[in-house]
Design brief:
Elements lengths: L5 H10 L29 E7 L6 H14 L3 E5 L4 H9 L3 E7 L6 H6 L31 H15 L6 E5 L13 H4 L16 H11 L13 H24 L3 E6 L3 H8 L10 E4 L11 H13 L5 E5 L6 H13 L4 E5 L4 H13 L2
Helix pairs in contact: 2-3, 5-8, 10-11, 11-12
C-alpha cells in the first residue's frame, strides 16, 4: 500500500501488505494453478478498502453500508479477520465481501516466538525479526521457506471457510521495498537511486541454501545483485509460487483470490520483487497512487493501460484519496481509469458522499 505520508499511511494500515528463466525444484515445483480466470465483470464496480468496526452497533453498520450501497458501492476489501455481524450486514445488502489479509509482512506473536528464523534478512545481515526496515512493523517472512507457505495457506483457509466471504484479498504479498517511491525518500533521509544493501532482502540461511541448490552460487557472493537475473527471478518466483498455493486454497473453498499490488508489473518487479502479472488471480487491484511517484493524475490512465495489456484478468484501479487535491482531480482520475479499460476502482482513505456521487456517475457513463 502507499500514502502521501508513508508513515501516516502505514500506521493507518496497521490499525485496521524479463520472462522467468529459472525454475526452482527446491521450492516444490511450478506454481500451482487451475488455469482459471474470472470472466469479465458484468459491470464496472466500485470497491473500498476498509477495516472491521467491532465497536459499531448493528444499527450503525446497516445505516452506514446501506448509504454506501445507495451511493453505488459494490464490495469491500475488509481487514481484521472475520466478523459475523458485519459480514452478515454486507451480504444482506448484496455486497461482495473480500477479507483483506497481510501476507508476507507478518508480525504474528506465534511466528516471533517459534520461528524467528522465518524472517527475511538483508544483504547486510539485518533480520526483520529485530531490525525491520523503514518502520517497526515491517516484519517480513520468506516465501522460500516451506513452513512459511504452509502457515499462510492455513490462514487463507481460515478466512475462505467463512460462509459470507466471497474472496480473499492479499496485501503485502512481496519482498520489502528495495526502492521506495521517490516522493518518500525525503521522509527517510534516503537516496535510493540505486539499491542499498540494507534494504535488499532475503539473505537468510534458508533462502541462500535454496538458491545454491538450483544455481550453485551463494547470493552473498553475487557482485551485482540488482541486475543478476537468476537471483532476481528466484525471488520473483518465490512470491508467484506462494500466490499459486494461496489461490489453490481459496478456490478449494469456492472463493475468489485477489491482490493489492504495486502500480504496474515493471515497477513492482523493480521496487519489491513482485511479478504480479504472472499470478493466477481473479482480479487485481494495482495501487496507482500517483503522488507517491511524483506523477500527475494522467499517470493513472497510463498505468491502467499498461496493466490491462499485461494480464488476462480484470484490473480494478486502486486510488488513494488524499492524493487528489480537488473533486475535479478525483473525477479526472476515475474517468481515466475507466476510459483506459479498468473493470472498477477501489478507494482508500477519506471518501465522502461527493466522491461516491462522482464515482457512480462516471461509472454509469461507461456502462
Amino acid at each position: 500500500m502507499g500514502a502521501v505520508d508513508r508513515r501516516t499511511f502505514l500506521r493507518t494500515a496497521a490499525a485496521t501488505g524479463v520472462a522467468c528463466v529459472l525454475r526452482l525444484p527446491s521450492l516444490g515445483g511450478p506454481p500451482p494453478s487451475d488455469g482459471r480466470r474470472e470472466r469479465p465483470m458484468a459491470k464496472r464496480k466500485l470497491y473500498i478498502w476498509n477495516g472491521i468496526d467491532r465497536r459499531a452497533t448493528e444499527k450503525d453498520l446497516k445505516a452506514r453500508y446501506g448509504m454506501l450501497k445507495k451511493r453505488g458501492l459494490d464490495g469491500v476489501f475488509i481487514s481484521g479477520g472475520t466478523d459475523d455481524r458485519e459480514f452478515d450486514v454486507l451480504k444482506t445488502l448484496g455486497m461482495e465481501v473480500h477479507t483483506w489479509m497481510w501476507t508476507t509482512n507478518r508480525g504474528d506473536a506465534w511466528i516471533r516466538e517459534h520461528h524467528p528464523d522465518w524472517y527475511m534478512v538483508s544483504r547486510t545481515g539485518r533480520s526483520c525479526f529485530d531490525k525491520p526496515p523503514y518502520v517497526d512493523y515491517y516484519r517480513w517472512v520468506s516465501p522460500v521457506i516451506p513452513g512459511v507457505r504452509r502457515y499462510l495457506v492455513e490462514r487463507v483457509g481460515e478466512l475462505a471457510a467463512h460462509p459470507a466471504v466471497d474472496g480473499v484479498h492479499l496485501d503485502y504479498v512481496r519482498y520489502p521495498d528495495v526502492i521506495l517511491p521517490r516522493a518518500l525518500w525525503k521522509d527517510y533521509g534516503l537516496d535510493q537511486t540505486e539499491e542499498l544493501p540494507d534494504y535488499d532482502f532475503c539473505y537468510s540461511e534458508h533462502t541462500r541454501r535454496a538458491f545454491r541448490e538450483v544455481d550453485g552460487r551463494d547470493p552473498l557472493d553475487i557482485k551485482d545483485p540488482a541486475h543478476d537475473q537468476p537471483w532476481l527471478h528466484f525471488r520473483y518466483d518465490s512470491v508467484t509460487r506462494l500466490v499459486g498455493e494461496l489461490a489453490q486454497e481459496a478456490r478449494r473453498h469456492g472463493k475468489r483470490i485477489t491482490a493489492a499490488v504495486f502500480p504496474t508489473p515493471n515497477l513492482a518487479r523493480k521496487i519489491c520483487r513482485q511479478d504480479w502479472d504472472k499470478w493466477p488471480l481473479d482480479f487485481v487491484c494495482p495501487m496507482i497512487y500517483h503522488s507517491f511517484y511524483e506523477e500527475t493524475v494522467d499517470w493513472i490512465g497510463e498505468s491502467v493501460l499498461e496493466d490491462i495489456r499485461a494480464v488476462d484478468f480484470p484490473v480494478v484501479a486502486g486510488l488513494y484519496m488524499p492524493a487528489f487535491r480537488t473533486l475535479a482531480e478525483f473525477e479526472q482520475g476515475v474517468r481515466l481509469a475507466f476510459r483506459r479499460g479498468a473493470a472498477g476502482v477501489s478507494l482508500f482513505g477519506g471518501v465522502d458522499d461527493a466522491h461516491w456521487e462522482i464515482a457512480d456517475r462516471v461509472r454509469s457513463e461507461f456502462a
